[in-house]
Automatic annotation (TrEMBL):
<protein>
    <submittedName>
        <fullName>Spore photoproduct lyase</fullName>
    </submittedName>
</protein>
<dbReference type="InterPro" id="IPR023897">
    <property type="entry name" value="SPL_firmicutes"/>
</dbReference>
<dbReference type="GO" id="GO:0042601">
    <property type="term" value="C:endospore-forming forespore"/>
</dbReference>
<dbReference type="InterPro" id="IPR058240">
    <property type="entry name" value="rSAM_sf"/>
</dbReference>
<dbReference type="GO" id="GO:1904047">
    <property type="term" value="F:S-adenosyl-L-methionine binding"/>
</dbReference>
<dbReference type="InterPro" id="IPR007197">
    <property type="entry name" value="rSAM"/>
</dbReference>
<dbReference type="InterPro" id="IPR034559">
    <property type="entry name" value="SPL_Clostridia"/>
</dbReference>
<dbReference type="GO" id="GO:0003913">
    <property type="term" value="F:DNA photolyase activity"/>
</dbReference>
<dbReference type="InterPro" id="IPR049539">
    <property type="entry name" value="SPL"/>
</dbReference>
<keyword id="KW-0456">Lyase</keyword>
<dbReference type="GO" id="GO:0051539">
    <property type="term" value="F:4 iron, 4 sulfur cluster binding"/>
</dbReference>
<dbReference type="Pfam" id="PF20903">
    <property type="entry name" value="SPL"/>
</dbReference>
Length: 337
C-alpha cells in the first residue's frame, strides 16, 4: 500500500501555532516538498487556471494544513449523532466518491491541527446528551485512515473516546494503514467499518485506495485487536459476473477473519446510485469511465436521483442477504438501500 505523499503543502499561517503543523512543516521542508503559506484553508486554488481534470489532479496532490474553526458539530443522521471532522477530502480518486458533490472544486486534502480543541468540543456535545450515549462519525468528510501516517490524530481520537463513558466513535475506511491503531486503549468505544467491494469494482473505480486484499487483512487485524467491526458493501453494482464477484469477496472475508461468527459484525448494503450533478462531475473528471450512468436504465427517485429499477434492486438484495446469512450467520445486516 502506497502512503500519501503530497506534491505540495500549503500551511495556514495561524496553524503554525500548533506543534503538529510545525512538525509537518519541518518534515516536508527536509524532504524538499514545496511548502507555501496561506491565509485560509477555505480559499485554495492553483496559480493558473486549469481544466477540470487537471484541477482535480492538482487538488488530490495538495495537502493543506489548517485549523478547524467551526466547533459546533453538524448532525450526521442516520449514521451517528454528530460529524467529527479532523480532516476534509482524501488523496484517493474513487470515481463515485460520496464527497465529490459537496466539495466541488475544493477537493484538496485538508488536515486540522487543533485536535485538542476539537476533542474539547466533543466533550461538550457528549454533555448535551444528558447521560445518553452520543455517537460521532469520523468519516463524514474524509477518510481519516488515509492521512493517519501524517497526523496521528485518529489514534489520539480513539484513545480519547476510550476514556468517554458516553461517547462512541465510528470510522469508515477504504485504507489499510491501521497498524498504529492496533495497540490503543480503545475499550471497544470505536467501531471500524471497512468499505469493501468486488475486486473488479475496486480495481476499476477506486483509484489510489488500498486493494481488496489489503483491506481484508486490515479488517482482520482490527478484529484481532478487539475493535467492534463492520463492513459497508458499496456501491453494490450489477455487471457481467457480479454474483461471482460478491461470492468471492464474502468467501475471502470469511476465510480471513479470525471470528467470522462474531455476533457484533455488521453489514451495511448500499446500491450504486447517481444524480444528475454527480453524473456531470464524474464524466468531466473521468471521461473514459466504465460506470453505468445512463438514466434510461435506472429508476428516477425524484430530486434528480437515479437508482436501479426495483426488480434489479430486489435481485441484489436477495443475493447479498442470502450470502451474508449463510457465511456470517450471527452478523446483522443493518440496512439495504
Ligand atoms: Fe472519497 Fe472515500 Fe474514495 Fe476518498 S476513499 S475518494 S473519501 S470515496
Amino acid at each position: 500500500m502506497k502512503k500519501f505523499k503530497p506534491q505540495r503543502v500549503l500551511i495556514e499561517k495561524q496553524a503554525l501555532d500548533y506543534p503538529l503543523a510545525k512538525k509537518l512543516e519541518t518534515q516536508f521542508l527536509k524532504e524538499d516538498t514545496p511548502v507555501d503559506y496561506i491565509e485560509s484553508h477555505n480559499r485554495v486554488s492553483p496559480a493558473k487556471e486549469m481544466e477540470p481534470i487537471e484541477l482535480f489532479n492538482w487538488t488530490k496532490e495538495t495537502l493543506v494544513i489548517g485549523t478547524k474553526k467551526t466547533l459546533r458539530f453538524k448532525s450526521c443522521q442516520p449514521s451517528a449523532d454528530y460529524r467529527l471532522v479532523t480532516s476534509t477530502s482524501c488523496p484517493a480518486k474513487c470515481e463515485y466518491c460520496y464527497l465529490a458533490k459537496n466539495l466541488g472544486s475544493a477537493s484538496y486534502v485538508r488536515i486540522y491541527v487543533n485536535l485538542e480543541e476539537i476533542l474539547k468540543a466533543v466533550k461538550k456535545h457528549i454533555r448535551k446528551g444528558h447521560g445518553e450515549i452520543i455517537t460521532f462519525e469520523a468519516s463524514s468528510s474524509s477518510d481519516p485512515v488515509a492521512v493517519e501516517h501524517l497526523t496521528g490524530s485518529l489514534a489520539k481520537t480513539i484513545e480519547y473516546f476510550g476514556k468517554q463513558d458516553k461517547g462512541r466513535l465510528r470510522v469508515v475506511t477504504k485504507f489499510a494503514g491501521v497498524d498504529s491503531l492496533l495497540n490503543l486503549e480503545h475499550q471497544r468505544h470505536t467501531r471500524f467499518r471497512f468499505s469493501l467491494n468486488t475486486k473488479y469494482v475496486i480495481d476499476t473505480f477506486e483509484h489510489l485506495t488500498s486493494s481488496l486484499k489489503e483491506r481484508i487483512n486490515a479488517a482482520s487485524k482490527i478484529q484481532a485487536a478487539n475493535y467492534p467491526l463492520g463492513f459497508i458493501l458499496a456501491p453494490l453494482m450489477i455487471y457481467d459476473g457480479w454474483q461471482e464477484g460478491y461470492t468471492n469477496l464474502l468467501n475471502q472475508l470469511k476465510e480471513s477473519l479470525s471470528q467470522p461468527t462474531d455476533e457484533n459484525l455488521t453489514f451495511e448494503l448500499i446500491m450504486h446510485r447517481f444524480s444528475t450533478r454527480s453524473k456531470n462531475l464524474i464524466e468531466a473528471r473521468f471521461p473514459n469511465t466504465k460506470l453505468k450512468l445512463n438514466k434510461k436504465d435506472y429508476q428516477h427517485k425524484g430530486f434528480g436521483k437515479y437508482v436501479y429499477p426495483e426488480h434489479e434492486a430486489d435481485k441484489l438484495k436477495k443475493f447479498l442477504s442470502k450470502q451474508i446469512n449463510d457465511l456470517f450467520p450471527k452478523a446483522k445486516i443493518e440496512y439495504f438501500t
